[in-house]
Amino acid sequence: MHRLPAPRAAWLLAAATLLIGGSAAAQPIAALDTAASAGGERSGQENSFGVEVASKGLWKEAAYRWEKAVELDPQNPKAHNNLGVAYERSGKFEEALKSYETALELMPSNEQIRQNYELFREAYERKKRKDRDAARSRRR
Asked: For the domain bounded by 32-139, which CATH number is listed?
């Protein structure tokens, strides 16, 4: 029986859970549409490549691709969402929050963006409470 490496298996399980409507960690979104401008098209290509490398566990490369996608087309909500996912995974929570909020502003009707944002907000608020509680305990 062929077994997937643990990080990839976990990512695929989370993606499958999200696709069937369950709760999971935030997930990247592939660019399913093409933009009219050359910058928009290149942004979509960078976004798609970022999703591909993220699925292989190459999160630094994915973040680089999504940063490029946002640079090429600041109005690309999927790239902003995906950048939020990458920042969240690397512990850059303030940057993740900004990216998710931008994605949501650009495409408020997208359920996956909304779900990623809400999952992140819940986890981030729990982390901030835990950090505050730990700091209080150290002061005592």
From this structure: 1.25.40.10
